[in-house]
Amino acid sequence: MSAPAATRWARAIVVGPGARRALRAGAGAEGRVELAFGPGGYVSLGDDRVLLAPARSPLGPLSILVAGLVRGDLVPGMPAAVAGEALIVGALRIELADARRPPAPRPTPLAPGWHAALAAALEVVAPAPAQLAPGLDALAASDLAAAAAQLAGRGDGLTPAGDDALAGFAAWRWAQGAPVAMPAHRCAPLGRGYLCCAERGELPQPADAVLVAVRSGDARAAARRARRLASWGATSGAALLWGMAAGAAGTSRRTTHGTPARVCAPGSR
To answer: Would you list the DSSP string of 187-199?
Structure first.
């Protein structure tokens, strides 16, 4: 696919790790704007998605934060292509060469008081809807096949919420030093992208901040950061925390009983 002609230049400030992988894999692939909101939006590059957002936005693993991005730059259906060290979207050319890489995620050891910190965080976000409860229970039991069958692609939100819960669980397990490969074939394309990042410990900044506070046993910081997390997407922030809580339930079970919870073999991707 040839790159569309560009008439305006912008510059990427930071590129998230998942977005970097998508840019590499998407070179030469068909791309387009899938969704636009405000000055930003989601762009598909082959099978992957990236989020274009203004420079001061919270950073997510699929985000490309762009200086000079304005409302109207992205229109659904507009063609997109990777051209060397640039992403061209319609008439916009986004230079990528000098964009920063965020620091790699680092596991946070569990500290005393983490149970109370998790409870404090959960108090300030919406509770999980009843329709997701069986899947979250399966996650807490580390029955990944059952959890994916009941959560993947389900619930409200763009991702949707069930996919975000799977991602929160995967991130907790990564931080615990027991990473999992989730059965992701039923997830929505965007949810699958965020889930694959979470399996590597890569989360949106607000979610990572909550995870660190909880695992550090800092209840006050966990509650404060959870309030900010609640504004990440329509339901994504709360759902990520529900998934973390399910992962934490498995941690409590293994700590209490000394027996690892069962992990089913992951399905195809």
So the answer is: S-HHHHHHHHHHT
pLDDT tens profile 88-108: 999 999 999 999 999 999 999
Q: What is the DSSP string of 126-177?
A: PPPPGGGHHHHHHHHTT-HHHHHHHHTT-SSTTTTHHHHHHHHHHHHHHHTT
What is the rounded distance in angstroms from the CA atom of residue 104 to the CA atom of residue 201? 9
How far apart are the C-alpha atoms of 104 and 217, rounded to whole Å? 22
Residues with Cβ within 8 Å of 256's Cβ and at least 6 positions away in sequence, in order, are none
**Pairing, β 8-15 against β 63-67:** antiparallel
Which pLDDT band holds residue 29 (cuts at 50, 70, 90)?
Answer: confident
Q: Kindly report, residue by residue over 151-177, the tens digit of the pLDDT.
A: 999 988 788 999 999 999 999 999 999
Nearest C-alpha neighbor of 74 from the set 99, 49, 111, 103: 49
199 in Cβ contact with 179 (< 8 Å): yes
Q: Map residue 230 onto helix, strand or coil.
A: coil
- What DSSP state is assigned to residue 51? E
- Report pLDDT digits (tens) over 242-256: 999 999 998 766 543
